[in-house]
Write a structure and sequence with these properties.
Layout (H helix, E strand, L loop, with lengths): L1 H23 L1 E6 L7 H16 L4 E6 L7 H10 L4 E5 H7 L15 H8 L2 H6 L3 H4 L2 E9 L3 E4 L13 E4 L3 H10 L2 E4 L5 H7 L4 E4 L1 H6 L8 E4 L5 E8 H6 L2 H35 L3 E4 L6 H14 L3 H11 L3
Parallel strand pairs: 1-2, 1-3, 6-7, 6-8, 9-11
Antiparallel strand pairs: 3-10, 4-10, 5-8, 5-9
């Protein structure tokens, strides 16, 4: 009889343990704005597969690219309520809510992709993530990035003066809007999937874009004048809903943080490695290229600084950090 009771106790304990594991299993949803072919989406898909493998099938992640769950503002709202679990977001939407993040878009904060990568992996940039739980209701896991920003135009462009009055596609956020407004352009927010057709039908005259998207999404087919300026870096942040994060075990938090951060680091490395090759690919195409530098945009930079030095208190610290990592 004692052995029978012991066996029952063991079976019950095993059942409780199994029930605990089952209760912790999660089907997560991860949203982002980029199309399936984009590096960010590929990284999200790789993260989903690794989380499933490392959790032995306990956790699954469904990836929703191309704004399937809405634009970034809508996704942030879903993250805040817990309706969306995770996202890879441009810093654009974050900077609309936490102005300090706008400092990462300071014109010529960095000179090239290598300095941009080093800055995003610095302690100064990491400290900005500490503001996210309280200000946005999300947990920042780490940064990714896209390539340095350029201007691709349907008509010839020799410098910033040729962009005055032009409808120029931007990602919808204040720092880049203010930069192009300072140039005298008409900044026009437009989702990435709609950019090709907008160039084709003349809805926009030019776009703010990186080498990768210009090539992968073939924007050069509709606009063949490139102002090669490297005027801004373009960070991305991987986040988890604060509501969802609080429900996770410490082990699951560590697993998700480790795997997502590794994919974000790979995104940075991939853009670093391909930037020069992609520039050469564009030079090999039948497009007109004009180079520009900080001095070319001096007036617009001064006007931008007058606004954002007051809005983003982190700007001075990030400038110093950018100098500290230069050449690293």
């Amino acid at each position: 009889m004692t052995r029978f009771k012991t066996a029952l106790t063991l079976v019950a304990a095993a059942g409780l343990a199994l029930g605990s594991v089952t209760a912790q299993a999660r089907d997560f949803r991860l949203g982002l704005i980029t199309p399936p072919a984009h590096i960010w989406t590929q990284a999200a898909t790789d993260f989903a597969q690794e989380l499933r493998d490392q959790s032995h099938g306990q956790h699954r992640v469904s990836v929703f690219p191309s704004q399937q769950l809405g634009n970034e503002a809508q996704m942030v709202q879903q993250l805040q309520t817990g309706a969306l679990d995770m996202a890879f977001l441009t810093i654009a939407e974050i900077s609309n809510r936490v102005p300090d993040f706008g400092a990462l878009y300071a014109p010529y904060l960095v000179e090239d992709i290598d300095q941009a990568a080093a800055l995003l992996q610095s302690d100064a940039a990491s400290r900005l993530l500490d503001q996210l739980p309280g200000s946005v209701g999300v947990v920042g896991i780490g940064y990714g990035m896209a390539g340095m920003r350029q201007v691709l135009s349907r008509a010839a462009v020799e410098g910033p003066g040729d962009l005055k009055g032009k409808k120029l596609r931007i990602t919808p956020f204040e720092p880049i809007r203010d930069f192009y407004t300072a140039l005298g352009s008409a900044p026009t927010p437009l989702p990435l999937p709609g950019v090709y057709d907008a160039l084709a039908n003349g809805q926009v005259d030019a776009i703010d874009m990186d080498f990768d998207s210009i090539l992968v999404l073939k924007f050069y087919e509709r606009a063949n004048h490139l102002l090669l300026s490297n005027h801004m870096m373009f960070p991305m942040v991987g986040v988890v809903s604060g509501r969802v994060w609080r429900e996770l075990s410490d082990d699951d938090k560590t697993l998700i943080q480790t795997l997502m951060k590794a994919q974000l680091d790979k995104v940075i490395d991939q853009f670093r490695q391909q930037e020069r090759d992609q520039e050469q690919q564009l030079r090999d195409l039948n497009i007109q290229i004009v180079e520009a530098d900080r001095a070319t945009f001096a007036d617009a930079i001064q006007r931008w600084e007058a606004t954002w030095s007051k809005k983003a208190k982190a700007l001075d610290g990030l400038r110093q950090a950018a100098q500290d990592v230069k050449g690293s």
